[in-house]
Amino acid sequence: MSLNSKKNVFVCGAGHQGLSMAAHLALNGLEINLWNRTAENIREVIETGIIHCSGIIEGDAKISKVSSNMEDVVADLVLVTTPSGAHKDIARKLAPYVHKDMVIILNPGRTFGAIDFAEELKKCGINNMPQIAETQTIVYTCRKSGQNSTKIFALKNDVEIAAIRGSSIDYIMSVLPMCIRPFFKAVNSVAITSLSNIGMVLHCAPVLMNIGWIETKKAPFKYYYDGISKSVADFIEKIDCERIDVARASGFKVESLKEWLCRTYNVKGNTLYECIRNNEAYKEIDAPPTINTRYIFEDVPNGLVPIETLAWNCGIKTPNITTIIDLANSVLNTDYRNQGRQFTLAQLEKYF
After folding, report:
1. What are the residue numbers of the active site?
2. Would you say 18 and 11 are in contact if contact means Cβ atoms under 8 Å apart?
3. Are residues 184 and 260 in the same domain?
4. Residues 299, 110: contact at Cβ < 8 Å?
5. Is 214 helix (H, G, I), strand (E, B) or coil?
6. CATH code where residue 265 lies
7. CATH assignment at residue 44
8. What backbone phi and psi angles, to 5 degrees, belong to 35?
9. Looking at residue 345, what is its pLDDT?
10. What is the pTM of this model?
């Protein structure tokens, strides 16, 4: 089996991004196969075959196939949109169908996601690896509003995408659907996409600093506009500086969160706080209703932990990142270091 010219795309996961991506691609004429691990969470899409999309993209998107059984929907272009904690399980489920021309893109990989995915496929006995890539972040600013409805607030500019060593980023870019291809920018190493993971910077500390507000059910608030005050913004900038230091020590240059916001959303501001406040796409984003959120259970073990581990390997300290990991461990009674991705620099360099 090889990648063919049909407009068939497998969107793997039906959360905020998966539903938005499936709807957007379908509204642009592609045949979309949608999978979600829990059938009940996509019951309305299964029954109607429709995703209602609003925001900057509007329409009722017709989905070709919908299932919780991967065999029913697998195709040669796989766009994984699940939280990164599900990547290993997705790799195991995909393993029976993998071939060398299959393209698998993790949207996003978080930190070293494509490497983690490839390592899991190897454990499943896959020798002829598919084409594997990861994006730096989610291409959509979006929110799922029901089982078969979503709202897209923005598409981000120049989302970085890279392939692991042994895969061809040119080939991968050539099979990306035309309606989303212009929003991606190819870079030459998954080290850059992984070390540019800004989700862990924007998510973990603000949640932990707003626990009281989040757990006060009578006080809903906007995550970026209300939850990231000037003091919170100043603190997450310290985390961002540590991320950049780790990248530099590993031999890579990455942009700051402030630079990323200006480039991705075309915002202006003298400080990180001002850039966040000036981002129109963030105005409607609600805070998570609970601290048991992917902003913690995804972004701590698969974001901050691998950065801290790499820092140890490089002989540098990350006191603010370490503080947030320790606080998350204590508050949620979980050992996120034990759960997290921990690679040595030597293990990573095989894929850079």
Report:
1. 203, 299
2. yes
3. no
4. yes
5. helix
6. 1.10.1040.10
7. 3.40.50.720
8. -125, 145
9. 87
10. 0.92
